[in-house]
Amino acid sequence: MGLSYGRQATSGLGWPAGTPAEGPAGSAPPGATAGLGGLGWPSTDRDWSADRGSRGVQVNGDGPGIGTAGSSRGDRNAAPPGAQAPRGTRPVVMPETTRDQGDTPIGRAAEAAVGARGLAGQPWPRPLRCRIMTIANQKGGVGKTTTAVNLAASLALHGSRVLVIDLDPQGNASTALDVPHHAGVSSVYDVLVEERPLAEIVRPVGEMPGLFCAPATIDLAGAEIELVPMVARELRLAKALRAFDTSELDYVLVDCPPSLGLLTVNALVAAEEVLLPIQCEYYALEGVQQLLNTAELVRVNFNPGLHISTVLLTMYDGRTRLAADVAEDVRAHFGASVLRTIIPRSVRVSEAPSRGQSVIAYDPGSSGAIAYTEAARELAMQPAGTRQHG
Prior knowledge:
The chain is of the alpha/beta class.
């Protein structure tokens, strides 16, 4: 059955000829319906029998199905040989097309997984010296830890050596990297409060060569209070990093808690760059200005080289206009600092920490893994100078 236009009806995918009352010059007589010439525009002057030998797939219900369009096997109403069928019953035939056998959803996912795991192509360029980056945002739930873990994993899989410093008392980065951080384990707390060397608490991340983690335990929750009476309390992490040999590292990523307390201030004083993840929702914009004010105070008083080098848009929901508006506002404000890659909402990204993995390792073919891999590639390609692998 087709759609009806007044007294005319179209067959299959046919187009109506003219208006219900009258058609243009040369159109079919009243009561007849124009059919499609192949997959093109309506045609009223072609012989139906001319298409009998075409190969393809018939998509309206009156013809013989798959195969030769003129075949009448099993069709008692088919036109006899040599007879011309009414144009209104002419079948629409879709031409058969050839396609690359590898161009399938599974093939594309496999190709993306190979790229995410760094199994294809050359390693990404490494910076001339270690880049120390603080990943901070006062608002919680914007993807700070997720960004730190997945950027670190992707950079490590593509030839870089990365240290993740977990400065959040919740220890979520340690959980995602499957590094022990239960009570009694040496952690960043011992570095900040007890002045223990950072090298003594750094742990390699299993099955991820080149990736290391300084874990956080719940003891770090009390560090905010214990640091208050200490001399140079804002410089504790910076001092520990200066004593740590970073010559063999390419990146140090510091995952901050969702606050602007002493832990975040320590991270800002210790770093040269700030990576600012911004969730594509309205509330995420409200906390950004407070972070910028704090970073400016740190720059003026403690760390003149501090600057916001990278902004990453996270949790983008393409179904909402709000997400697009937030992305547009962020790009207008921060300009070239905003990475072109946007991280979409992804179930796999949320599932990965429950397996003690980054999404890069958990499901490298997922949209989240592909997006974080591309964001890490942009980060590696930033004009900060490169050095050869070796």
